[in-house]
Amino acid sequence: MHPFHWVPGDGARHASLDARPEGVFLHPTGAEVRTLCGLDVLADNSQLAWLWETCPECNAEAHRISARSTTSGRTR
């Protein structure tokens, strides 16, 4: 599992490292979230929001994080 998660906000699907509230899978709508691209956005968990385009900066950083976690987890 990766340390980031996806959260729609500000018209795009962003990735974030922010901790989610205890016992929930998604940030609640209206919660302020810091994204991997550096924006602070208000989460929007509407059905339409999950169809927004992915933020290219968050996507690139998420891929970098994924690559690091994949290679650091390998054993020789």
UniProtKB/TrEMBL annotation:
<protein>
    <submittedName>
        <fullName>Zinc finger protein</fullName>
    </submittedName>
</protein>
<dbReference type="InterPro" id="IPR031795">
    <property type="entry name" value="Zf-HC3"/>
</dbReference>
<dbReference type="Pfam" id="PF16827">
    <property type="entry name" value="zf-HC3"/>
</dbReference>
